[in-house]
């Protein structure tokens, strides 16, 4: 797994560079191939790389989408060939899963998750609208956590990267630890983390952070039960 992180400052008291440095250091174990960053006034996005195969150069992140958005992604696309074909990408073009996810966002916007299957977390920042969007895969195969205070909004691939940010106490949550790590309790609460005040984005959910600090959560997929099939008639059972 690679790593992604981002921080938005909503107060001049926040030192974005220091906050990003702290988060990056906490995620170094997930990024043996180094980090890339994008920054602008009020926002920093980062990506920690774990290269697989021969597409390292083409896999550089953060990605600049054609519509001006900045994108970071961590994921594995199970229907890679199908999604690639639907996007009209030449089979000879070097392409990794992260870049494919970025191109899917570029084409289908927030509905990209209707066309991609696998494990992923994708975050996009729109510099013009000042809007952040995060999406997590249907079954929660890749992690992402977030914290929201009056001074900042931040997200990362691990809650440890968020603990200790300005206004975020690094206090363990015993209930959250039980819900996160116990084999049975994990199914009872899919938003808990090991730290107080830090939440996980639930599987099959999207998050939108709007100017003014509004956070909206939306579930985009739900497992649909199938009707049981039976080839025998009722009288034969």
The geometry reads as globular
Q: Could you tell me the mean pLDDT?
A: 89
Tally of individual helices: 4
| Helical content (DSSP H or I, runs of 4+) | 10-25%
Which blocks of ≥5 consecutive residues have pLDDT under 50?
230-237
Secondary-structure-derived class? alpha+beta
Order of helices and strands: EHEEEEHHEEEEHEEE
Radius of gyration, Cα only, in angstroms?
A: 19 Å
- How much of the residues is beta strand, in percent? 25-35%
Q: Termini distance?
A: 49 Å
**Most strands sheet:** 6 strands, antiparallel
How is the largest sheet built, in terms of strand order? Answer: 2-3-1-9-8-10
Number of strands: 12
Folded structure, characterized:
With 237 residues, the protein is of the alpha+beta class. It is built from four helices and twelve strands. A six-stranded antiparallel sheet has the order 2-3-1-9-8-10, covered by helices on one side. It starts with a strand and ends in an 18-residue tail after the last strand. The relative contact order is 0.15.
């Amino acid at each position: 797994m690679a790593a992604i992180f981002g921080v938005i400052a909503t107060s001049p008291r926040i030192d974005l560079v220091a906050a990003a440095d702290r988060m990056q250091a906490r995620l170094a174990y997930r990024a043996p191939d180094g980090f890339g960053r994008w920054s602008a006034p009020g926002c920093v996005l980062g990506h920690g790389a774990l290269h697989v195969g021969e597409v390292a150069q083409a896999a550089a992140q953060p990605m600049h989408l054609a519509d001006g958005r900045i994108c970071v992604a961590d994921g594995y696309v199970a229907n890679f060939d199908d999604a690639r074909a639907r996007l009209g990408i030449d089979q000879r073009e070097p392409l990794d899963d992260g870049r494919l996810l970025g191109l899917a966002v570029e084409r289908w916007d927030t509905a990209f998750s209707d066309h991609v299957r696998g494990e992923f977390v994708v975050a996009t920042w729109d510099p013009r609208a000042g809007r952040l969007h995060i999406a997590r895969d249907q079954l929660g195969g890749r992690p992402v956590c977030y914290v929201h205070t009056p001074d900042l909004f931040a997200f990362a691939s691990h809650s440890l990267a968020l603990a200790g940010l300005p206004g975020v106490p690094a206090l363990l949550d015993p209930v959250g630890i039980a819900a996160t790590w116990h084999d049975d309790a994990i199914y009872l609460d899919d938003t808990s983390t090991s730290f107080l005040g830090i939440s996980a984005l639930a599987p099959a959910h999207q998050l939108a952070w709007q100017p003014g600090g509004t956070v909206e959560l939306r579930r985009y997929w739900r497992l649909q039960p199938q009707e049981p099939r039976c080839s025998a008639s009722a009288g034969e059972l």
